Amino acid sequence: MLSSLAGIPQPWLDELYDSSALVTDPDGRAAVLNEMAYAAGRRKEVDANVLSDMLELSEAARTWALLEHEEAWAMGLLRYESAEEWEMDEPERIVVGRTPGNAA
Questions:
Q1: Residue 104 CA from chain centroid, whole number
Q2: Is the dihedral of CA 100, 77, 65, 31 positive or negative?
Q3: What digits encode the pLDDT tens for the residues 71-84?
Q4: Is 2 helix (H, G, I), strand (E, B) or coil?
Q5: Cα–Cα distance, 69 to 77 (Å, whole number)
Q6: Count of CB atoms within 10 A of residue 49's CB?
Q7: 26: how many CB neighbours lie within 10 A of its CB?
Q8: Is 22 exposed, middle or buried (0-12, 13-18, 19+ CB in 10 A)?
Q9: pLDDT tens for residues 5-23?
């Protein structure tokens, strides 16, 4: 299924427009977009010009998301907390993962 936007596949556009996922993980989402674009090219769903456009849009989305991510950090919308901080407020909270920068 193709969109009307220059022959770009709609599933790829759906991923591109998922701004929450982009802001949360700019590099990871851009990698997904790139892989989806290359896969569409390998399947001959898009020609070389459309593939090039998709890759440019992916990089533009990544750049936008990095800026939004930094702004969210500056505004205090995102932050890292240690398990000890969580347990002070929510003693029954289940903690998964670790704080970046600390040894596992």
A1: 25
A2: positive
A3: 877 877 766 666 66
A4: strand
A5: 9
A6: 10
A7: 20
A8: buried
A9: 779 999 999 999 999 899 8
